[in-house]
Design goal:
This is NADH-quinone oxidoreductase subunit E 2. Keywords: 2Fe-2S, Iron, Iron-sulfur, Metal-binding. There is one protein chain. The protein contains seven helices and four strands. The protein starts with a helix and ends in a 14-residue tail after the last helix. The chain has a four-stranded mixed sheet with strand order 2-1-3-4, covered by helices on one side. β3 and β4 form a beta hairpin.
Length: 173
């Protein structure tokens, strides 16, 4: 039987709901898993989730649009968030910002054309004494310099090697 992309998505969401629960307390865990796997949460996914959890689709959309990490827009496999607080600003954030934009060829708020990297600003990461702070997916980097940006990006790029699996763990030195 031929399965469409939507059928596959709906099937995976049903599996997630079976595993994580089918009430509103499972909403964010399900959304996180969908975002992690598909790098976006589209209106169809929100409708399927709403139907499974017995809540209105507007509620699902409200949660997705409220939390920046769930934002419905498509993101790269590596989402790089640079802290934009005054503490990180005073410790060289703008140099790190320029280096990231130059190395990736995109501006903050954009995703590379190949869908591998997204640059975003973030509010305080709680690392004010170790700025500038950078978050790559779920991993924090502190005291980031333009030179460290090269190392961080190279570690990410190694994941995309010929035999690399999408879920391969990135090891930073």
């Amino acid at each position: 039987m031929l399965m469409t992309e939507r059928d596959r998505l709906a099937s995976e969401i049903r599996s997630l709901a079976a595993k994580l629960g089918q009430d509103r307390t499972s909403l964010i865990p399900i959304l996180l898993e969908v975002k992690r796997k598909y790098h976006t949460i589209d209106s169809y996914a929100m409708q399927v989730i709403a139907d499974l959890l017995g809540i209105h689709p507007v509620e699902v959309n409200s949660v997705v649009s409220f939390y920046a990490f769930l934002g419905g827009h498509r993101q790269g496999k590596f989402v790089i968030r640079l802290c934009r607080t005054i503490s990180c600003d005073m410790q060289g954030k703008s140099r790190v910002e320029r280096q990231l934009e130059n190395d990736l060829g995109i501006r903050f708020g954009e995703t590379t054309p190949d869908g591998k990297f997204t640059l975003e600003f973030a509010n305080c990461m709680g690392m004010c004494d170790q700025g500038p702070a950078l978050l790559v997916n779920d991993r924090i980097h502190t005291r980031v310099t333009p030179e460290k940006v090269h190392e961080i990006l190279e570690a990410c790029r190694r994941v995309f090697g010929v035999h690399a699996a999408e879920t391969k763990e990135v090891v930073f030195k």
